[in-house]
Amino acid sequence: MGGLNSKQRQYIVDSFGSRASFNKTERKLYGHDIAEMPSLIKRLIGSTIPDVVVQPESEAELVELVKWATDQRLPLTPRGKASSGYGGVLPLKKGIVVDFYRMKNVIQIDKDEQTATVEPGITWEKLDRELQRHGLTLRLYPSSYPSATAGGWLAQGGCGFGSYEAGWFRDNVISARVVMPDGAIREFTGAELDFISDAEGITGLISQLTVRVMPLDEMEVIALGCPDAGSLQNLVQILVDNKLPIWSLSFIGPRMAELKNEAPLREHLGHVVEERVLLPAAYIITLAFRKKDRHSVADGLAELARGCEGEVLSDRIAQHEWQERFKLMLVKRLGPSLVPIEFVVPLSALANVMAEIALKVRQPVIREGIVIREGVDGKPEVTVLGFIPGDQRKFGYNLVFSLSLTIMNITQKHGGRPYSTGIYFTHKLPAVLGAERARKLKAFKRQVDPRGIMNPGKVTASGLVSILTNLVSKLEPIFRPLGNYVSTRIGERPSKAVRDIPPDVVWYAYGCSQCGYCIDECDQFYGRGWESQSPRGKWYWLREFMEGREKWDQFMVDTILVCTTCELCNLRCSASLPIEPSWMKLRGQLVNDEKRMTIPPFEMMAASVRKEGDIWGAYRKDRSVWFPKEMEEKHGPSRKAKIAYFAGCTASHVEHDIAIATVRLLDAAGVDFKYLKEKDNCCGTPMLVCGKWDVFEEIMRLNIQNMKEAGVDTVVTSCPACDMMWRQYYPVWTEKLGIDYNITAKHYSEILAEKIKAREFTFPDTGTNTSVTLHDSCHIGRVSSVYDAPRELIKAIPGVNLVEMEYNREWAHCCGSVLTLIKEPPVAAVLGKSRMDEAIDAGVEKILAMCPCCQFQFRVTAEKKQLTIETVDLARFAASFLGYEFPDPNPEVQRQWAVFEAMIALMTPEGFADLMGAMWPELIDAMPFRMGGMMRAMGRIPGALQLMKPLLPILFPRLLPMMIPKVMPVMLERVEQRMPMPDYMLEQMPDLMPEVVKNLMPHMIGDVVPLVTQPMINHLEGK
Ligand SMILES: Cc1cc2nc3c(=O)[nH]c(=O)nc-3n(C[C@H](O)[C@H](O)[C@H](O)COP(=O)(O)OP(=O)(O)OC[C@H]3O[C@@H](n4cnc5c(N)ncnc54)[C@H](O)[C@@H]3O)c2cc1C
Ligand code: SF4
Ligand code: SF4
């Protein structure tokens, strides 16, 4: 690792434990921001991989860290969500990246004073959510609201939505607590905030800030269209002059409008699921104002607009532009890269600036802007964010980049300035901050940080990048024709696979803007807290891989596999990227095509599925033990019904109440259905998500064949994952494989909701009075949008009060199950608890859930985290009002979990090493070519085996495949001692285990050998 010595490393480990990362891949992901640097600048900067990333949890920890780092002369680089693009978060001198992710508490909300005091790592979205509970909201926020942090915006400085009324962010900050480079805590207020705002963390680490907020009022929006920049400038000036009580005024340029019309819409499993709202190729202004001010703003607006050749646009456009206001990066997918240019100009110069840009820059410049009614000199200012589409993979991107300096020169000529400094414009600091403020900031930096450890190389420093940009901007007339000469293509155009990454995934990886919106709500991320586990981190890593700087290892394969497939990221993505489907593609490629190791217990499930059709190691003959005997005739396999109930593995073998209750409800509602009993099977979801696609295909074919043979055209499920297969995946796969499908899938709740609506089914009034909440399962919610039917079912039960959790329907959080539970049980418990806490906060008695796996996960979590809230299956809950009683699934869940927990521990290098350690005599006997005897003899010669030790990593992988079959009987005995299996599973182990070991050993042997070599030598030497 180089940068830190062993003592320093130890200090970090002792202080931060798992909240520090030395992992090279991880560190790389904390060494960049959103900017796509041209290759020439990248080379100039060199590596920005920090030596370590730490995640402090408190101000006290920050103080200790800063004191120690100053003493050790180790640079500190603060990082919020890295959604800035000026290089402020780049650890130019390596050292320590301080990630504020875990310092995100709201400390105080003062409704009377209308202030909020927060830790720096909170995002604007989360703070706003919290404020709204108190009847307050933000006075302003950046358009990176879903990801940007409070501390990051104060340090970076800027304006955003609401700035028309509220001005620059700095003017809305009351105070900031800062850990200074000497470790002292200092509070900054008033004019002193100039030392912190726009300083990008070079003067200290912000540990707390208090901001002004405002009462929550209902807002309305109106969109206006202007044919050109002159019309835009005139209209905005008139709105200012007329003192209209507008809260926010933002606009987009004609090119942006055109590209938005072309940008891909959000898709789901190949279908477009968003409506396109066509925009006119004009400057489109979006005004937001309080509802109570409607008359003052709206009356006469059309006339004002007409006076400037503008017009009021449709409400549909206004609503669409407002709802999509955070998604400005959508157009990046057409690049797939964007050269950014951000500047501030007086409103009075806007038209002239735009005209000169149009004259000098021949590339398409996409624009959007925010108007500040009272800028730094009290006059209206406009912040313009421009983009030129390009492709960072091509050399021409360097040339197009130089055009951003052309634009900056034009801006400054008209009295404008760059938006920020970072590493690119340190030479323009006096222009950005004003000469006096710049001078004071430099003096303050020298005074408080003489050792230069706080975010070195930024803002006041004079770095190579700034020197280069200064030079290029001076030589701009020479570079301009080159930049203009580059031919720019616009539009999504995946062409070829790169290092086996499928073409569309290649394009998405570069299309990702790195905005970070997907991070905090990704459960794979928030269960662990590290960037590699987020979609953003994975896209960045894929770029590095495709450019040859990374290669697959088990850590990265696992990061693709442990995504829970919750699909929340698809909704959050500012570029509408199909994120989860991309990981799904990679699962198949990595495990199925390239034969990399999947999450080990899935090998056991695969063997069990192949043998008996279920993932639980149970017998097919026991699959239908739950099926009520008295239903045999009416709903058994011989019934000639077109509808079949498909129970799936977990309801069949573990949580029987789900299956029993479902058939009771369907029966009571008069549904003519049958149940195929032993011909029911695993649906294949576990095999699909673990990448064992050959097994998935076998299962799918069998399931479809069984249903066809039974004359079924509609499959009814209780399990959302089964539903997902029959409704979404089987149609896509059968089409791909040319299999006739023609089967409809329905969830039982949908059938019952239809019956309830048609008044064909009702629940009796049992005099109950209870409050429940509903956990939306990802696999039927976000996957198939089944939200209303289960709610209709609950609402139809007299005396039951349904209370929604804070995150519900399409925004519902995942339970954290299957892949997480199987790979990292402690992480699953964190995720499960976070979801169950939402239910507890809702003040209900029970969480109703549909998915057997969610229920399993909640029950395991409740046991681990000692939570008392009860999890109940929705069908069971509903059917109990019909007078039925059901077996308690909890004991079986805990029993099965004990098996799985032991299996998870066993199927690790440590687990296998432990297993081998328990059978040395048999393993040595099993060595081929009489090597066992030879090894024993060498064990008796002192030091002989130590000489042979280096050969063992080479020999073992060759010998083991020959040894394993011979030791299988004893291995099974030892496995049994370690895994408390039910009888049926134990009986099947001789069939399942060899397959599992055969598939896993080749992948694990490299990690197992170092663990077993010395113990084996010890054994042979009789120690
Ligand atoms: C889609 C999109 C839209 C955007 N819209 C806007 C906009 O409307 N207005 C706007 O101004 N910007 C905008 N930005 C830029 C960026 O989001 C903002 O600058 C944002 O405030 C940065 O917040 P962050 O948490 O990501 O900070 P980071 O990018 O992580 O950090 C920014 C700077 O602050 C420093 N820093 C971070 N935390 C601390 C701390 N606790 N103490 C000391 N220093 C710290 C970092 O070292 C860095 O120099 C946008 C970006 C994107 C991707
Ligand atoms: S599907 Fe869920 S877990 Fe997977 S990357 Fe997206 S948000 Fe994260
Ligand atoms: S995946 Fe989407 S939301 Fe996440 S960083 Fe990329 S563009 Fe932003």
Describe this structure in words.
- With 1023 residues, this protein is α/β, with parallel strands linked by helices.
- It contains 44 helices and 28 strands.
- The strands form 6 sheets. Strands 16-11-15-12-18-19-17-20 form an 8-stranded antiparallel β-sheet, sandwiched between helices.
- Helix 19 crosses helix 21 (535-546).
- It is globular, with a radius of gyration of 31 Å.
- 51% of the residues are buried.
- One iron/sulfur cluster binds at residues 329, 512-518, 535-536, 539, 572-575, 577, 579.
Mean pLDDT reading: 95
- Tell me the number of strands: 28
Tally of helical runs: 44
Distance between the terminal alpha carbons, to the nearest Å?
Answer: 36 Å
Strand order of the largest sheet: 16-11-15-12-18-19-17-20
Reconstruct the topology from this structure:
Blueprint: H1 6-16, E1 20-21, H2 24-29, H3 39-45, E2 52-54, H4 59-72, E3 76-79, E4 96-99, E5 106-110, E6 115-118, H5 124-133, E7 136-138, H6 150-156, H7 163-166, E8 173-179, E9 185-189, E10 205-215, E11 219-226, H8 229-241, E12 248-252, H9 254-262, E13 267-268, E14 271-272, E15 283-290, H10 294-298, H11 301-307, E16 311-312, H12 315-323, E17 337-346, H13 350-360, E18 366-372, E19 381-390, H14 396-413, E20 417-418, H15 429-433, H16 435-448, H17 464-474, H18 476-485, H19 503-511, H20 523-526, H21 535-546, H22 554-561, H23 568-572, H24 579-593, H25 601-612, H26 632-635, E21 643-646, H27 648-653, H28 656-668, E22 673-675, H29 685-689, H30 693-709, E23 714-717, H31 720-737, E24 744-747, H32 748-757, E25 770-775, H33 788-795, E26 800-802, H34 819-823, H35 825-841, E27 846-849, H36 852-865, E28 870-873, H37 874-880, H38 890-906, H39 909-917, H40 920-925, H41 931-939, H42 944-948, H43 952-978, H44 983-1020
Helix pairs in contact: 8-13, 13-14, 14-18, 19-21, 25-44, 28-37, 32-33, 35-36, 39-44, 43-44
The structure holds flavin-adenine dinucleotide and iron/sulfur cluster (2 copies).
One iron/sulfur cluster is lined by residues 329, 512-518, 535-536, 539, 572-575, 577, 579.
